[in-house]
Specification:
Elements (H helix, E strand, L loop, with lengths): L8 E3 L8 H6 L10 H18 L4 E6 L2 H12 L5 E5 L4 H12 L2 E5 L9 H10 L5 E7 L1 E2 L4 E2 L2 H11 L4 E5 L18 E5 L10 E6 L1 H7 L29 H17 L1 H22 L6 E2 L11 E5 L5 H12 L1 E5 L8 E5 L6 H17 L8 H12 L3
Parallel strand pairs: 1-13, 3-4, 3-5, 5-8, 8-9
Antiparallel strand pairs: 2-10, 6-7, 9-10, 11-12, 12-14, 13-14
The chain binds pyridoxal-5'-phosphate.
Protein name: Aminotransferase class V-fold PLP-dependent enzyme
GO molecular function: alanine-glyoxylate transaminase activity; L-serine-pyruvate transaminase activity
Cofactor: pyridoxal 5'-phosphate
Length: 394
């Protein structure tokens, strides 16, 4: 017997649930890629992406996932042998660094921890040691989707500034843009990147990069540039060059609709929605943790992301729980990845999420914990309900 029917609910951190409006926006014929409508669509999206990143700098759209956008950032500002400093807080900055190493950069990892965010003071100390300025760029993620850690990018930006070091600061916002505040210019970020399929509620397949004046200056001398990723190649007047070939017309319609929806909701409201729903998840996990099996992967409460929560299982099998939730109840939880493979599951709360989706997911996790006899504190979903009742004003 199962209690699943109809649409499966994806509680994984990407691809995320797409609004019906976004799906419908793609159900139409392609545009003539040379038409003025096409040019206007591109211009509106580039302007709105810069607004989302909060920069006066330039934005670029690639037909790529996040891994592609990583290569876009690296190839545009690095030269062979340049040193990149990777700020570790789980899996994703490390992955960005691995791409850089494969492309010919020298990569140094500022050792972090899977259970905590990057410490800004450690970044400052490392940069102060680098008297010859051999480090050319620093990469960090705002949210590490594997560990569930939230990095205080503003504080890291301040630390870099305080050190007086000239390295470019590059930030991955794949699991946070549109969900949590991000201020590229105010926080001293030179290059930012993101993808379409997480907070931005759009199908996988678009990668976004923004660059400021300083990055565009460094770009001029970078020798890892290749034609597809190259910012300069994309600056030609001909619209065709904006995508280095045919525009991904339908994905752009989808993105247009998704950004329209975010603008209608208001970015501040979207951030607040993520804060509330993220906290609701944390209230539930905190109660479940009383059973001594489940627990937060990220130890410090203020380092937990509002977009994804990674729950460790202290020796119990997360796969059995995930399988139960999917096969019996139609909810797909995220799996533990990297160091947490086989040891954790993840609940995504990013993008097109609302109270019934989150409370439903928490309820299903609790059904699974009961059905599988996994010890846990009782009343986790109830705690989430109480929290929302107290904090979503009538
Ligand atoms: C998902 C993710 C990526 C990789 O994106 P893909 O589209 O899967 O290539 C990079 N960084 C972060 C923080 C992510 O969450």
């Amino acid at each position: 017997m199962t209690v699943r029917a109809g649409r499966e609910f994806l509680a994984i951190p990407g691809p995320t649930t797409m609004p019906d409006e976004v799906l419908q926006a793609m159900h139409r014929p392609a545009l003539d890629i040379y038409s003025s409508q096409m040019v206007e669509l591109t211009e509106s999206l580039l302007a709105d992406l810069s607004k989302l990143f909060a920069t006066e700098g330039k934005s670029y759209i690639y037909i790529a996932n996040g891994h592609g956008a990583w290569e876009a950032t690296l190839s545009n500002v690095l030269s062979r042998g340049d040193k990149l400093l990777v700020l570790e807080s789980g899996r994703f900055a490390i992955g960005w660094g691995q791409a850089a190493a494969a492309m010919g950069a020298e990569v140094e990892v500022l050792k972090g921890d899977w259970r905590r965010a990057v410490r800004a003071s450690e970044v400052e100390a490392r940069l102060r040691q680098d008297k010859e300025h051999s480090i050319k760029a620093i990469v960090a993620v705002q949210v590490d989707t594997a560990s569930g850690a939230y990095n205080d990018i503003e504080a890291i930006g301040k630390a870099i500034k305080a050190s007086g070091h000239p390295a470019l600061f590059m930030v991955d916002t794949v699991a946070s843009l549109g969900c949590m505040p991000f201020e590229m210019d105010k926080w001293g970020i030179d290059v930012a990147m993101s993808g379409s399929q997480k907070g931005l509620m759009t199908p996988p397949g678009l990668g976004f990069v923004a660059a400021n004046e300083r990055a565009l200056e460094v770009h001029k001398k970078a020798n890892l540039r290749t034609p597809y990723w190259d910012w300069t190649e994309r600056e030609g007047t001909e619209h065709y060059r904006k995508y280095a070939g045919t525009a991904p017309v339908h994905l752009l319609f989808a993105l247009r609709k998704a950004i329209d929806m975010l603008q209608t909701e208001g970015l501040e409201n979207a951030f607040q929605r993520h804060r509330l729903l993220g906290e609701a998840v944390r209230r539930a996990v905190a109660v479940w943790s009383e059973g001594q099996v489940l627990g937060f992967n990220v130890m410090e409460a203020n380092e937990r992301s509002n977009t994804v929560t990674t729950v460790t299982m202290n020796g119990h099998d997360p796969l059995a729980l995930q399988r139960y939730c999917k096969e019996k109840c139609g909810v797909v939880l995220g799996t533990g990845i990297g160091d947490l493979s086989g040891q954790a599951f993840r609940i995504a709360h990013m993008g097109h999420v609302n109270a019934p989706m989150i409370l439903g997911t928490l309820g299903v996790v609790e059904v699974g914990l009961n059905a599988l006899g996994i010890p846990h504190g009782k009343g986790g979903t109830e705690a989430a309900i109480e929290y929302l009742g107290e904090n979503v004003a009538a």
